[in-house]
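Issue: ligand-bound run for threonylcarbamoyladenylate - logging full I/O for the record.

Environment: standard queue, default settings, no custom constraints.

Inputs:
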Amino acid sequence: MADIVSEETALERAIALVHAGQPVALPTETVYGLAADATNGAAVARIFEAKGRPRFNPLIVHVADRAMAERIGRFDALSRKLADAFWPGPLTLVVPLAPDAQIHPLVTAGLASVGLRMPRGFAAKLIAAAGRPLAAPSANSSGRISATTAAAVAADLGDRIALVVDGGPTPVGLESTIVKVEPDGVRLLRPGGIAAEEIEAVLGVPLLRGDAGGIEAPGMMRSHYAPRAGLRLDADRVAPGEVLLAFGPERIAGADKAVLVLNLSPSGDLREAAANLFSHLQALDRSGASVIAAEPVPATGLGEAINDRLRRAAAPR
Ligand code: TXA
Ligand code: MG
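Outputs:
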């Protein structure tokens, strides 16, 4: 079983594992990541192995600073502007891969582009101290809900990795927002921890939405983030035997008979709801109920990403 070690004391051991080509589970501000040296193919292969993840799915490369980012990707003016505004933080920029980036092709799934993100906290410290960019998908088995606590990582992947660095519950709770600068605008590839409206405020124009065609973000499979239970979205009543994922101060009909009710945010705050989303889904799933009813969540701000994850969790599989 993996050792769970507090982030205050885990740095030396994490550096040694990164240098040895072994994956390490660590906290970022969004969700826990399963991180390994992005320049080492065997290390990256161990991430896929531990997650049971399809190989065609490219990984985000995490960097410690802008200099590291610009050695790996080619930045245009708009990508720089977005990095200035949101790094470090929950924004991933997809940019063309630099000619001598030294990122292993397994990370980019052979694409000519790379997803780059500068995280906060322990992850940034480890990248700087190890002197390597880290490829890191969310630290969960492929297709499962992302982990927002060290305990959730250990329960899922603990028998396949050596170390889980514990930084407490992740503050944002949703994966990063992914955007890509295209010839006619900036495309939103995945809604996430930074609301689209915040990015649009920096750009001064709306983001492009929808699929540009092709497999732009092949990780965006419909049945991603799946709990074992079925998930019934926009419920207006709770059926017998169901558990309830609630939002806001008012309950839908039948909520008093629900086997278990967990509220994403009793006051209706979307930031709080995002931070609670995956842990509440996991806890409702663990109750053993076969269906989770979910109250509607507004689609504005972080609600866009929350609804995106809920739709994926509810998709047939
Ligand atoms: O917050 C996050 O982004 C977390 C933490 C650990 O940093 N990471 C994360 O990684 O969510 P992952 O692997 O679960 O999701 C990465 C997404 C996938 O949908 C993948 O397809 C997309 O990023 N992606 C990576 N590189 C890409 C590229 N070159 N072009 C388009 N999409 C890319
Ligand atoms: Mg993931």
